[in-house]
Amino acid sequence: MAELKEIAKELLTSGTVAYIIGYASEKNDKTVPFIARTVEDAEKLVFTHHSVNNLSVYLKRIKKPESGKVGLVVKGCDLKAVVALIQESQSKREDIYIISPKCNTVVSDNTKPWNKDNIASKCLSCEVRTPSLFDATFGEIETVELPSDEQIELIKKVEAMSTSEKWEFWKNEFEKCVKCYACRQACPLCYCDQCIVDKASPRWIDSSATVQGNFAWNMIRAFHLSGRCIGCEECNRVCPVDIPLSLLNRKMSMFAVSEYDYKAGTSIEEPTLVGTYKLTDNEDFIK
Amino acid sequence: MKDYIITAENIQLLVNDVLKQGWDVVSESKTGVNFNAIKDASELAIKSDSKPSKLSMKDFFFPKTEPLFFYRQSHDGVELVDASPIEKKTLFLGAKPCDAAAIPVLSKVFNWDYKDEFYNKRVENSVVVSLKCNYSDDYCFCTSIGLSQKAEQGSDAMLTEQQDGSYFLHIVTEKGDEFFKMYSQYLKDTQAENNKPVESKYPEPAVKFDQGKVKGWLDANFEHDFWNNLGDVCLGCGQCTFVCPTCHCFDIVDENCNYHEGGRMKNWDSCQLCLFTKHASGHNPRDGQTKRYRQRIQHKFKYYEDKFNEVLCTGCGRCTRGCGVGIDIGGIMERIDKF
Amino acid sequence: MENIYKPDLAEVKEIIDETADTRTLRLQFKDPEVHKAFSFKAGQFGEYSVFGEGECTFCIASPPTRMEYIECTFKLVGKVTNALRKLNVGDTIGLRGPYGNSFPLEQMKGKNIVFISGGIGLAPVRCITWNVLDLRNEFKDITIVYGARRVEDLVYKNELEQWKAMKDVKTYITVDPGGETPDWKGEVGFVPSIVEKVAPSGENSIAIICGPPIMIKFTMPVLQKLGFKEENIITTLENRMKCGLGKCGRCNVGNVYVCKDGPVFNYTQMKALPDEY
Ligand SMILES: Cc1cc2nc3c(=O)[nH]c(=O)nc-3n(C[C@H](O)[C@H](O)[C@H](O)COP(=O)(O)OP(=O)(O)OC[C@H]3O[C@@H](n4cnc5c(N)ncnc54)[C@H](O)[C@@H]3O)c2cc1C
Ligand code: SF4
Ligand code: SF4
Ligand code: SF4
Ligand code: SF4
Ligand code: SF4
Ligand code: FES
Fold it and tell me: Is the model's pLDDT at A286 over the cut of 70?
């Protein structure tokens, strides 16, 4: 943590960055997004097991500062969103100063202490605890004992369901949706100026939170993120009614790997999945 | 009005009886996500020391989506058809005091001058039996709003969990009295008992701010740097307003329709969403998250009080527990109190 | 069960194209009893709907002194206005209202009245103008200043001619510089400068002003220089609305619900509101 504060202070003093988007402590162990603009602010920056938020979501909302870069504290997993944003020409590498910690996993429930049974599901299969793209890094990797990955078990369970069982499963989940669009707002890759659900004429998707409207919204959201979702699970985390959106996202990502050998947010040089066509591409799914 | 004792078993029997009479029984779902109409008493989840469910129960008075009327249209003309009448009687069982207290608060806006009978009918048809709360966490602040773990506002009756597993049933309104008279076979006299309420694991939340003082600051500080920092991190997702028992903004749209038939819907909406106030011209009076967040605080702790003499908040803490970026409404009030 | 959200049905009796994108609908309630019972005051608005498309808010543009038709004048901007534009004579729409407060007609009596408007802002002003003209004897001097960007953007062209022909009304129609046609005989110049030129006295006078924010902004100092008291300068606000009933929470500016406490405000009241309109 001392390392982070030092890095931050030096960046702010030298004017390399206009400000740093990072984490600050809140009640108990919880951390919350915090924008450090001054050296005093930099003292407040922390990075802990509770630094759950994917802060790259703010890249889509803030204007480029007049001078200096945007400093961003970003874990290896969330960094994929930065990569994807660069791939999709939404951000420029040279505008962002990436401060990426070596990460020892984050909590699932931010109000409870970190321990073996309170680790975010995305951490269980994480391959990027040591980041590969950064301007500054800090921290040390420690060995972490991980619980089993229940999410992948659930995906297998849903895969094995009959069509009508799947329908029932998702109907029960989507029924709860209140159309708050928190899933969209928290997603770093949902950056459209005008989201399809906000288009009134013609109206493609009912704004009513009926089963029909909810299915339409949730499927469109998932489809628009297919081959793009980097698996930060922010959508899932902020959903007020606990709809397991990650199941859909992860299934799609697995599909992108198995069918197209593509992992979203891996390299800023690589073209995007939906932006490329190869003759060898599998087209079976189009019927 | 008389108070009673009711055992946990008798609550189950009573609920099944009420269901048999054709009533709906609504209680918190076992997942802790929302409130549900249950089909059998076995689905009941009455827990006095649980966290407030993620969604409040306002959905049952002011549904997230509700048809206002239907139309049938042809070249010969239009016919408007009323939405099905709201007749179902509903028993709400085990609501937290901070949930029940929202009902009279919302009644104010739904009844000044014009009366929203959709809301009124549902309230009229309901009997709200709340449960004395034995929970609290860092985000609860009912006591700062003038409520408490046993506040009776909005309740027709209130249960208090006793040490022997039975419940003390305190009748609050005539409506509650009449309701329980119909089910007197499940009730016992209080004198017969020599029992005490369970000790609450969680203390009543401390008073965190002086609402009058906060109101005074809000009156004078529509413009203040304070708002900027909040707006910077807020995602504008609307989660806070959708889960809130007192937020009541809505949209009116025609949906699920074609030229020939369809309906006009009243759907939850939120001042936190960027299109909420946007004019057709493109002009948007609240054109940034800072302004939108300020609206939420000002509406809850100033405008509503100016207008209706009520704080538009029961201190349940839902908005904060659910906020993806940890914006803490009680904490904000505390900070304002200290200015 | 009483349903405050359910409109009455009204029939389109006549369609008048004002400009390329602005149209007036003359409406009558389908049920003659409803039509007879309908009463409103100048400045109030209604919620107009096309079934299957939705509702939107327009002021009632015809005066309460002429109840044969209810009129609205709207500009094509989005979903519902698009649908309204597709209607033909004989088609049915929904209409609920009247909502909101109104111009202070009683207070205006015995005074000089200055009507100032720009573009489609004439719609509400037209309503109160005819209302005043229909009761002409009860008011003193009447001055009308109306402007649009170009000649083809002027609305209610016939009525502008009628006002010009009235001997006891001073009418000035203007277009922005560059917006005139070769045969244009009216004024050329922005509304604020025309008001300055006409210079109606602020003594015992009430000004009603409605139009684009920029026009209002630059006319205000002119009126103040002419001696108009702030409480005698009256305008209407156009916050986005849905219910019109003080329920849906969309239209508030500070603790004021524009749909119920407004849309008509005087300048003293406006100055007390936070800048969110
Ligand atoms: C008191 C009052 C009086 C008025 N009087 C008049 C009058 O006399 N004449 C007149 O012409 N106008 C008047 N207006 C303005 C009028 O109400 C709007 O222009 C009208 O409601 C637009 O409706 P619409 O459905 O066509 O536009 P919408 O389709 O609702 O919106 C048009 C544009 O707004 C944006 N937009 C806003 N909300 C959304 C959304 N949810 N989803 C997607 N896009 C959105 C989009 O850019 C869209 O293209 C008045 C308004 C008020 C409040
Ligand atoms: S869809 Fe969800 S998991 Fe994927 S990038 Fe967006 S917020 Fe993260
Ligand atoms: S966050 Fe959850 S409730 Fe909100 S729109 Fe997304 S899926 Fe629906
Ligand atoms: S305060 Fe939190 S929940 Fe509310 S809109 Fe902002 S980010 Fe969303
Ligand atoms: S504003 Fe927050 S704390 Fe207050 S009633 Fe709403 S959800 Fe509860
Ligand atoms: S806080 Fe916002 S959403 Fe909630 S009632 Fe007020 S204006 Fe409506
Ligand atoms: S328009 Fe709904 S409250 Fe004013």
Answer: no
pLDDT digits (tens, 9 = 90+) for A79-136: 999 999 998 888 899 999 999 999 999 999 888 899 989 999 999 989 999 998 999 9
For every one of its 339 residues, what pLDDT tens digit does chain B have, with 9 covering 90 and above?
Answer: 789 999 999 999 999 999 999 999 999 998 999 999 999 999 998 889 999 999 999 999 999 999 999 999 988 889 999 998 899 999 999 999 999 999 999 999 999 999 999 999 999 999 999 999 999 999 999 999 999 999 999 999 999 999 988 999 999 999 999 999 999 999 988 876 667 888 888 999 999 999 999 999 999 999 998 888 788 899 999 999 999 999 999 999 998 778 888 999 999 999 999 999 998 888 899 999 999 999 999 999 999 999 999 999 999 999 999 999 999 999 999 999 998
How many angstroms separate the CA atoms of C37 and C39, rounded?
A: 6
Chain B residues touching A242 at Cβ < 8 A: 31, 33, 54
Same fold, C8-99 and C105-236: no
Say which amino acid occupies B141: F
The closest residue, in CA terms, to atom 2 on ligand 5 is B319
| Cα–Cα distance measured from residue A99 to residue A191, given in angstroms and rounded to the nearest whole number | 22
Distance A224 CA to ligand 2 centre (A): 11
Nearest alpha-carbon partner for B123 in B135, B108, B107, B139? B107
**Nearest listed ligand to the Cα of residue B34:** 3
Q: How many CB atoms lie within 10 A of CB B17?
A: 16
Give the 3-state secondary structure percentages of chain A, helix then strand then coil, rounded to 5.
Answer: 40, 10, 50
Mutate to test the interface with A, among B141, B225, B232 (most CBs of A within 10 A): B232
Q: Which residues of C185-196 are buried (b: 16+ CB within 10 A; e: fewer)?
A: ebbebbbbbbbb
Ligand 4: which atom is nearest the Cα of residue B329?
Answer: 1
- Helix ranges, chain C (H): 32-37, 79-85, 105-108, 122-133, 157-165, 191-198, 213-225, 258-261, 267-272
Among B247, B306, B307, B312, the mutation site with the greatest number of ligand 6 atoms within 8 A of its Cβ is B247
Mutate to test the pocket of ligand 7, among C47, C242, C276 (most ligand atoms within 8 A of CB): C242
What tokens appear for B78 in the block? Answer: 């239009």
C130 in Cβ contact with C63 (< 8 Å) = yes
Contact of A129 with A76, CB cutoff 8 Å: yes
The C-alpha atoms of residue B212 and residue C53 are separated, in whole angstroms, by 45
Domain spanning C8-99, CATH architecture: Beta Barrel (2.40)
CA distance C6 to chain A (A): 18
DSSP alpha helices (H): ranges in chain A?
A: 2-14, 39-44, 76-87, 150-159, 163-174, 182-186, 211-224, 234-238, 245-260
Q: B1 to chain A, minimum CA–CA distance in Å?
A: 39
User: Mind telling me how many Å the CA of B141 is from chain A's nearest CA?
Assistant: 15
Distances (CA, A) of B116 to A110, B81, C1, C6: 40, 18, 10, 11
Sign of the CA dihedral with C8 first, then C14, C18, and C19 last: positive
Residue A129: count of CB within 10 angstroms of its CB:
18
Which of B117, B251, B277 best probes binding to C when mutated, by most C CB atoms within 10 angstroms?
Answer: B277
* Core vs surface per residue B246-284: b (16+ CB within 10 A) or e: bbbbbbbbbbbbeeebbbbbbbbbbbbbbebbbeeeeeb
In this structure, the residue with its CA closest to atom 3 of ligand 7 is C246
ipTM over cut 0.90 = yes
Integer Cα distance of C92 and C11 in angstroms = 5
Q: Which residue has its alpha carbon closest to ligand 5 atom 8? A: B316
User: What ranges do the domains of chain C cover?
Assistant: 8-99, 105-236
C105-236 folds as Rossmann fold (3.40.50)
Cβ pair B214, B337 in contact under 8 A = yes
Q: Please state whether B180 falls in left (phi above 0), alpha (psi between -120 and 50) or beta.
A: alpha
